[in-house]
Amino acid sequence: MHETLTVILAGGMGSRLAPLTQDRAKPAVPFGGKYRIIDFTLSNCLHSGLRRILVLTQYKSHSLQKHLRDGWSIFNPELGEYITAVPPQMRKGETWYEGTADAIYQNLWLLTRSEAKYVVVLSGDHIYRMDYKPMLQQHKKTGADLTIACMKVPVEEASSFGVMDTDESRKIVSFQEKPAQPPTLADDPDKSLASMGIYIFSMDALTKALEDDALNERSSHDFGHDIIPRLIDGEKVYAYQFGSEEGRVSQDAYWRDVGTIDSFYQANMDLLNPVPPIDLYQEDWGIRSYERQRPPSRTVPSATGNQGISINSIVANGVVISGGSVQHSILSANVKVGDGATIQNSILFDEVKVGEHCQLKNCIIDKHVSVPDGTTIGFDAKLDRERFTISDQGVVVVPEGYIFS
Fold first, then answer.
1. From the CB of residue 18, how many other CB atoms can be counted at a distance below 10 Å?
2. One domain, residues 44 and 97
3. How many angstroms separate the first and last alpha carbons of the chain?
4. C-alpha to C-alpha distance for 46 and 44, rounded to whole angstroms
5. pLDDT band for position 293 (50/70/90)?
6. How many CB atoms lie within 10 A of CB 94?
7. What is the bridge-based pairing of β-strands 314-315 and 396-398?
């Protein structure tokens, strides 16, 4: 694996995830009570043996870079291992990153001086577990210039992805980015073969493709729109089926793009299923993160005699439920729940304080928010819309540090 360099794209604005991305990049958004979104990609790299990693940052990157420093300074540079955050440096002109391909093109000097033969290109904003090693082995075996990880998706959802056709050897013969009428699988007309945005390039092929693309004034400098379609005609481009690998990770085949409030909310709620669709409990494939030392969580009776309870919920360290009731919800570190408060189907980030007799339902509350006694959220859509963002499916989002009037 020492001949492989990994590049994680982590600079997107994540505007559809606002206001959670108001002051942080999308990969730095908290997830599941104790993680950040990027922890899933980084943990996959760690367990797959990929230990030379560049994280390309751009948009509001302070929170992300702090998280990388605090939680991921784990590799030994004397052994040639590193996780390095790389902000835009305008080495190829006077612009910021103008697309996924341009982000890597502007850092070609880092790739070429690494002397790597292969480049793994990943996104820092998806929730999944994957062993990249079998994909890299297939890439080498086929002599591919590019290998793309793919999965089967319902045809009605395929317009949100890059969609491909393959021949019997898994060589990709066509690729369309977000087509209005996606092609379907020959043996399953209800499914399409979709790109997961996980790529392995041979270094020479990537370098040539990026340099050619940079000269094309009509290009949007995007892998899906520009680089991949041009490579398919003349190069060896193969598909790799996600979930088929024989690596160490248990096969739950779960992958989610959490780019909207509703998809982010649902992916969190997935963790509360009796048997969650993503396995976070495989002992030798743990999801690593940074976590401050805090006391254990606890439920306690209030002065009025109400018992604090937590039902089918994820409750992080430092949480105190004092006479309140938490049901089917995710509470991050140091959340405090007051007497008589009820929280249902909700996600609370770090340091949220819920006052007495509050009622919260179907909401996401960002960090450092104190909810005053008697407040209701999630029950009156008209009132909520006057104060907060409401998603298409009715999830109410309270931004970080919000002060109630």
1. 15
2. yes
3. 55
4. 5
5. very high
6. 5
7. unpaired
